[in-house]
Amino acid sequence: MRQRVLTTQRLVLRQWQPSDLAVFAKMNADPEVMRYFPKLLTPTLSDAIANKCQRLIEDNGWGFWAVSLKKSNIFIGMVGLNTAHADMPFAPNVEIGWRLHKDYWGQGYATEAARASLRLAFEELELDEVVAFTAVVNTHSQLIMQRIGMSNTQDNFDHPMLDPSHPLAEHVLYKITQQEWQDNNLL
Known about the structure:
The chain is of the alpha+beta class. The chain has helices spanning 20-28, 43-60, 109-124, 139-147, 178-185; strands spanning 6-7, 11-14, 64-69, 75-83, 94-100, 129-135, 151-152, 157-158, 170-177. Strand 3 (64-69) and strand 4 (75-83) form a beta hairpin.
């Protein structure tokens, strides 16, 4: 399978490298980065997630890519596409997601990388739609979803892997269709 590398003006979305793992583990153990996730991750679990992302890119040619700055090759997080877990109420579908090191927040990197991922999803993979979801309280991610042209479906749901009483259980669901992507990117 051809492994895609996506580039933007400032970023490279690429296959994972061993040097990414320590920074990724530090991100996943940071309470601020993981604020909207149910728990902090151990280095072992963080490495397992990165390795799974790497395997999915090898198998599919796409996935949650490691993201690095184009000028310095510094790893700053992950952005990309993933097949939604079968237990999700909107499955089967492809989701878009991101997790960046907090030192790189507020600079438009997540939006830039997400747009590149959507371009691939609609122009090469020819998907009909892409979804995104997050805890209702995660307004920062919802702003990114809006910036990349996604709309809130108003179909909130309780995340199936969380107890319904958990403060992060209720999630919003955003989506964008291929037609919406085309309409927004032909302007």
